[in-house]
Amino acid sequence: MSIREYLRQGRPLLFDGAMGTYYASRPGRAGARCEAANLDHPEEIAAIHRAYLEAGCRAVRTNTFDPGTDWEEARRIIEAGCRIALEAAQPFGAYVFADLGPAPVHQEGAMPPGEFYCRQAEVFLAHGLTHFAAETLPSDEGIAELARYIKGRCPEGFLLVSFAAAPDGTTREGLSARVLFERAAALPEVDAAGFNCVSGPHHLLELVRGLDLGVLKGKFLSVMPNAGYPTVLGRRVAYQGGADYFAGQMAAVAQAGAAILGGCCGTRPEHIARTAAALAEGAARPALPAQPQAKMEARPGRNRLRDKLEAGKRVIAVELDPPADDQVDGFMEGVRALRDAGADAVTVSDCPVGRPRADSSLLACKIRRETGVEPLPHLTCRDRNLNATKALLLGLSMEGVHNVLLVTGDPIPTQDRDEVKSVFNFNSRKLIRYVSGLVDHGLSTPFQIFGALNLNAVNFARQLELAVEKEACGAAGFLTQPVHSPRALENLALAREALKGKLLGGVFPIVSHRNALFLNNEVAGVSVPEEVVRRYEGLEREAAEALALELSVQAARDMEPYTDGLYLMTPFRRVELIARIMREL
């Protein structure tokens, strides 16, 4: 019987459970790479397949989730995985699915995801497999190419696409699992779509209950959760989710509309056996139609910076460096002085150049509470994963802070890297996309998101491409690096033509000859022409500040046709100099 005929009978198709965590639990295999066992210990992989089949599953996945990037070894692992799974499934009449894990997109020199998937699919097809499961996916990059390739080579092929959704409904790439599911279901060459890994059965059940299953249009929903959540026992990671509880939740998942069920990390043959029994008991009960959960209504909230920009009025945002110690009085005095001078917002950088300073988000909350100024904290990808970022953003929203500048962040200085590790789970574009989607995941008031734009980049065309991508991800505007040269001004004009969002032109007052040399040689993204550097030679502080005032006002006026406001950067806490510039403007 073809798999489509089986599914159209209305009976759930039960898959196997975990391979990796189950293999690692066997004697002497903790920490071992289970895919390599296709070559080194094929009898153990065959025994795991048989254990799941004897437990009652009707489909198994090849042990090929991560065959590696050495293509010759990967090919041998895939070939062996096909042979082992087919031989194990044959006596049971079970379906065998070619298992494809996520493409290694973040590895240096990695091939495009579509090419990566299709290259593996070619080997699977050559060894007789026509059913495919692309699973634990953080995004749908390359899936459309894979789907077209499979159906082009094998029209009767069956493709299941499964995304790894966290309990909050997002993937590690910051994407909405619901949106990914809908996009996959809309692809004509995809036969089934759903979710696996990361979350336990309860949270995937809640996710399924919030879906509009009408988007499937005759296709099939797949759900394969973890056995709860991991805990550390001694020196190993273990899943303690019980088989009876798992089975009860999976029966509810089937009632909610899932046609394909199975297990992921932490599940074992007993989880599948109990699930098979629970599904058999509930076979006579009709499936309940899924009721999409009501989305949280987005509330615009009060945001003076956004309101002024949308009204077409020019704004001034001023950056003030956070203190490197716990003495905040001087910083707050500076904020009040900038407010009184007419600043619309005060921006606070997030540990600039990778050195620890007072937290930008905590300072933003203090600024808003004590001064009434609209704060604009910077958030980097360097020091936080998505969980920490979301927690921080929820706190900012509770405090009424709804403007953020999202940047990738400066790397940790080389000498500190043994003690301090960067996170960089994502780049600024993915972070922008994640934050812009939070209104679907627990945030009632949307953030106004700004990005950074380097007008001094050698390859500005690439910078502009990235800015366009940031806008597509949800950026409402950009703060630019300072303009000191005709080339930077020309690039700003190009940005004005290409971008739809608001632009705040960068102004950095150079306060000495030494400062000019430092900016030119040690600060990324800043370029000061030599003729400007020479003008500061021999100047005392008062004369240098007068020149800084002259050049900054001129730069601001030159940028006016291309900008919606200014982004003034305060050098060395010289707030009065910034106030003088604002008064001149």
Q: What is the class of the largest domain in the CATH system? A: Alpha Beta
Shape: elongated
What does the radius of gyration come to?
Answer: 28 Å
Integer tally of domains: 2
Protein architecture, described:
This protein is of the alpha/beta class and 585 residues long. It has two domains: 3-281, Homocysteine-binding-like domain (TIM Barrel); 315-584, TIM Barrel (Alpha-Beta Barrel). The chain contains 22 helices and 18 strands. The chain has an eight-stranded parallel beta sheet. An eight-stranded parallel barrel has the order 11-12-13-14-15-16-17-18, surrounded by seven helices. A two-stranded antiparallel sheet has the order 8-9. The radius of gyration is 28 Å and the shape is elongated. It starts with a helix and ends with a helix.
List the helices and strands and how they pair.
Blueprint: H1 3-8, E1 13-14, H2 20-24, H3 37-40, H4 42-55, E2 59-61, H5 71-89, E3 95-100, H6 113-126, E4 131-137, H7 143-153, E5 158-163, H8 177-186, E6 192-196, H9 201-209, E7 220-224, E8 230-233, E9 236-239, H10 243-255, E10 260-261, H11 269-281, H12 304-310, E11 315-319, H13 329-341, E12 345-348, H14 360-371, E13 374-380, H15 386-398, E14 403-407, H16 428-436, E15 448-453, H17 460-473, E16 477-482, H18 486-498, E17 502-507, H19 513-522, H20 530-535, H21 541-559, E18 565-569, H22 575-584
